[in-house]
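Note to self: the last two entries modelled the partners one at a time, which told us nothing about the interface. This time every component goes in together.
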Amino acid sequence: MIKIKDLKASVETDDGAVEILKGISLDIPAGEVHAIMGPNGSGKSTLSYVLAGRDEYEVTGGSVTLDGEDLLELAPEERAAAGMFLAFQYPVEIPGVNMSMFLKTSINSIRKQRGEEELNALSMLKLMKTKCRELGISDDMMKRAVNVGFSGGEKKRNEVLQMAMLDPKFCVLDETDSGLDIDALKIVASGVNAMRSPDKSFLIITHYQRLLDYIKPDVVHILADGKIIKTGGPELAQELEDKGYAEFVGEAA
Amino acid sequence: MKALKLDNLPTPKVEEWKYTNLPRAISADLVDAPVQEITIHKTRGQICGQAEDILFTGEAGALHSLRLKIILEEGAQLTVLERHDGSGAYWKNMVTEIEVGAHARLNHIRLVEDSGEGVNTNMVHITQGADSLYNGFTLNIGGKLTRHEIHAEIQGQNAELHLNGLNLLAGQQHGDTTILIEHQAPHSQSNQFYRSLLDDNARGVFQGKVHVHQIAQKTDAYQLSNAILLSQGAEMDTKPELEIYADDVKCSHGATTGQLDEEPLFYLRSRGLSEKAARQLLIEAFVDDVVEKIGDEELEARVSKMCRQWLGGVLSIHHKGSKDTKFLKENK
Ligand SMILES: Nc1ncnc2c1ncn2[C@@H]1O[C@H](COP(=O)(O)OP(=O)(O)OP(=O)(O)O)[C@@H](O)[C@H]1O
Ligand SMILES: [Mg+2]
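The predicted structure of the combined assembly is written out below.
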């Protein structure tokens, strides 16, 4: 499904280009859930942005394919149409753009790119209501501007709502659990679990074992300083929780 | 009120005209058109459901001297729609005098669509009595050079003054908004909210000054100017000023000038919107925020439509050449 090979990316700063991703290789077969854990600043969000196509980051090497298609060649909106979705660590506020109109535009843009017919207003409303209910989001929120004045947890839920509505095949969740209360965490996790299927893959970025108790990963990777330094089963997350990063980072060095 | 004469034009040496060079914009061989004077007078308590609709049309080669007087006596209510169009090169030299009596309410909507070679200078003097409301909105999408100069005197308590405007300019257009608000009585409120979208080599000017007199305690004055530059050649000059002599007041001002933010643009694109659609959505939202201040659904719809038309033109050009994308990257 998603194949990342020796991916390198850098960002332009005042002191010149700084390499952040230093050769990441990762295969997530269809139907699997992988988790990435790693210390602050290790490059987790950068990886998610590079996958989604943010042009602030320059890809300096490697490749990424989604079902054989070269993702790196595509514009962000084309990646969305190809089935890529990123739930942002920091969802962006968009004043003046109303949630329901945003969702409608988003879904129909993707459908249009795929050559599918646009959803009519009624089907859209139905879909929105169903998904809102499943995720415990009030209808009132759909009348507000995108993420504006949403609490931290509401923003994260809103990311999952969009994911559920767009029904992508490859989902990256960047710290979707941080800022969520325990109940919200369960709701969000069950939302993700409901989407799990043999033709979808997930990459879940998190700092905490807790989310992985609800969404059982098939594989756990540890990212440090722009590289994957260890890969293992779900037990790796527990091990990390017990020992912290220092040991692993030391081991790799 | 000083009226401008061709041989006595204000130059950028005059502080208030710092950014706007009038003599350069006006051709010398304009011919005086007859003075046009319109007076609207509503007597005490007169409440007008129907808006007064006034159109000033500029004619090629003419120097138009325009006078508009709006007087609302105590408790009167009115909406004035002031429209400007024209063809060819001309100069509209306009003086507007507005008196809003105690408890009176005036909605004043200006739609400025002067010709691409027309010059429109408008000096507006507003006085407000106690508990009165002046709600002004200007959509400026026309003219080679426009200057909207407002001097408002809040003379009564609990008055509310709103000056809102949108300048959508392209080509070589120059749009100047210069405001002086004098709070001469306590417990009054003034709001200035202006937004500009500037394309090509257009230039926007916003100078807003709030003067709070010593007696004007509990004044609440707010000023905000936001400009988005859609091209590298566009320019915005902003000069906010506060002069406060009372000690118990709430005054704030803010100004931003820049390109469309990258973050929301990327967020929208990651949700499937094309770059063009994402830009359009963000720009429409930027514009709608001000349009909503009109407070009349019908007029809002009309203004909104005019804005959409302007945006449609600008955005489709940008998308073809993709010059804006390049511009954004160069400016990081
Ligand atoms: N635009 C940028 N300009 C300069 N440095 C950047 C930029 N983006 C990321 N970095 C740097 O790259 C490194 C990786 O950042 P990234 O956000 O990917 O970390 P992260 O693993 O997601 O951290 P966290 O767990 O705190 O979310 C950090 O040192 C960060 O400061
Ligand atoms: Mg991060």
